[in-house]
Each structure stands twice: as structure tokens, then as C-alpha cells.
Amino acid sequence: MKIIIEENYEKMSRVAANILLGKMYQNKRVNLAITAGSTPVKMYEYLVSDVKNKHYFDNVHYYNFDEIPFKQKKGYGVTMTNLNNLFFKPAEIPESHIHPLDENNYKNQDKRIEQDGGLDLILLGIGADGHYCGNLPGTTKI
């Protein structure tokens, strides 16, 4: 593991965007597992301008790996709604390149990713309370 420390949020966000871009600039299908939350907001702002209307990124496919459904609401949950608002819609990512995890496909998601060639990179954020992705403290009763 390589740990990179930057002086501020903007620089950290630019570095994170550059790391994703480094994976995306390949001459093969690239599968990225990404998440939402407050940590990557600025990174997605950078990525939107970096990838929008750049057809050499047509090889990139996106997967979410956690999802929190909205109560009493059908359709996308928290993660996919945020990814759509932060990145997919502003960057005009084709729907055919977005592979959401949801209540209908969660049992087959691992197999689908394996059939698609595996993941090339997973983007995780760490929340202010120490949670990461779907690991939300105090929400699960054992």
C-alpha cells in the first residue's frame, strides 16, 4: 500500500482523480468500483471535466459496491443517487457503462464482476466517524 499525504482537501482530491485517471488510460476494459459520500465530492468535480466528452474513456465501466435504500422509495438508493448527481450525469457517462448494485442483483454481483474481468481499482472513502462505505457504525444489530 502506498500512502499519500497532501496539504489540503483540494490537492488530495486532485491526486485521487489522477490515480483514477491513470487506471482509465488503458487500452482495455477498465472496471472501477466507486462510492459516494462527502470525501470524494471535489475529486468528482475534477473528474467530470477530465472525462466528459472524452471518447477515449469509453473503455471504463463503473460499479458501486454499497447501497443504502431510501425508506418508502423505489429506485436507486443513497450511493447511486449521489453518484448520479456528482459524477455520472454531469460527466455524461453512458448508462451501459454503469453497473449498479441493488436489491435485485446483489447475489450475482460478484459473478458479474468476475465475468466482466474483475475490478481494476476500488475507491473507498473514510467518513468523519470512521465508517467506510457500507460499514456504518450503529446501524447493524447483531
Would you mind describing this structure in some detail?
The chain is of the alpha/beta class. It has four helices and four strands. The protein has helices at residues 9-24, 41-51, 78-88, 109-115; strands at residues 30-34, 60-64, 98-99, 121-122. Strands 3-2-1-4 form a four-stranded parallel beta sheet, covered by helices on one side. Helix 1 (9-24) crosses helix 2. The chain starts with 8 loop residues before the first helix and ends in a 20-residue tail after the last strand. The mean pLDDT is 88.
Low-confidence spans: none
Tell me about the biggest sheet? 4 strands, parallel
> What is the percent of helical residues?
25-40%
Q: Tell me, briefly, the overall form.
A: globular
Structural class: alpha/beta
Briefly characterize the structure.
This is Glucosamine/galactosamine-6-phosphate isomerase domain-containing protein. By secondary structure, the protein is α/β, with parallel strands linked by helices.
Provide the fold topology.
Layout: H1 9-24, E1 30-34, H2 41-51, E2 60-64, H3 78-88, E3 98-99, H4 109-115, E4 121-122
Parallel strand pairs: 1-2, 1-4, 2-3
Helix pairs in contact: 1-2
Main features:
4 strands, Rossmann fold, 142 residues, 10% strand, alpha/beta, four-stranded parallel beta sheet
